[in-house]
Prior knowledge:
Protein name: HTH-type transcriptional regulator TtuA
Number of helices: 11
CATH class of the largest domain: Alpha Beta
CATH topology of the largest domain: D-Maltodextrin-Binding Protein, domain 2
Helix content: 40-55%
Distance between the termini: 61 Å
Number of domains: 3
Order of helices and strands: HHHHEEHEHEEEEHHHEHEEH
GO molecular function, one term: sequence-specific DNA binding
Domain HTH lysR-type: 14-71
Organism: Rhizobium glycinendophyticum
Keywords: DNA-binding, Transcription, Transcription regulation
Largest sheet: 5 strands, mixed
Amino acid sequence: MHKESLSMKLSKQLPLNALRVFEAVARLESFTRAGEELGMSQTAVSYQIKLLEGHVGEALFLRRPRRISLSEAGERLLPKVTEGFELLREALADLRNTADGTLIIHATATFASQWLARHLGLFQLNNPGIAVRLETSQEVIDFSRTEADLAIRSGKGNWPGLRAHFVMHNHFTPMLSPKLADSIGGVREPLDLLKLRIIDPSDPWWRIWFTAAGYPDVELDTHQRTRLGAQSFEAAAAVAGHGIAILRPEFYPEEIASGALIQPFELTCEDGSHYWLVYPEARRNAGKIRAFREFLRSALPSFEAMPAGAKS
């Protein structure tokens, strides 16, 4: 009886179901969509939110026509609720003996192919008990909806609810095959690039680079637009002589060493968006995440060289 009464008392003190509903409504910004995700009616969702508001003594949402938003109290509560559920998920994962099982990494196709795939062997050699699954995507994943332990993400390092560690600067410069450069007698000044096919002239990196080179008004809109979706694909097209790509030169040491690609100008630029290791704040102490963090720290001198949210 004592255990039963204690359990009942705890359930009254901590309305877990209402908190779960609150997290879904806040994340989806909709009572209806939260109900669809949780398999509940909109009425049941509203009832759970009212129960929670009664429990805390404050309104958690501002109800407006056709939309809802978090109140000040809701804004204070949401990060703690999100972290609490992440901690619970982590505890369950540990009980299923998966804390040191498979490490699922999401990364951009370029970072995965040009750096991570070349170095993962060292991580696995030093951590034989951890299997690795590498997924690539250009999309920013939602950890609450995607099976992933961590991600390598390009941005400014300020994602709410995620711990972010700086990995490396993401700077860029035009690169092309020497054969393509020779086809116009060589590339000696920035405007020579306009005589050749530019791979994806709509990429804002081109405008940034030409502006830094002293040509802010260069005409790019007249060039044929080809979007290949990832820097690694653009590099392959440049190696094949199909045009000039704007790339991060450190990703292509073998192509540069072999002469397959050349960097005609020393000028490199940045747009403030760099590579970061990210994972849910609540999972920071997971064994496999700690192991991968230490691997990056030993493999990359630039790791954690810049705090999250800092401007380069």
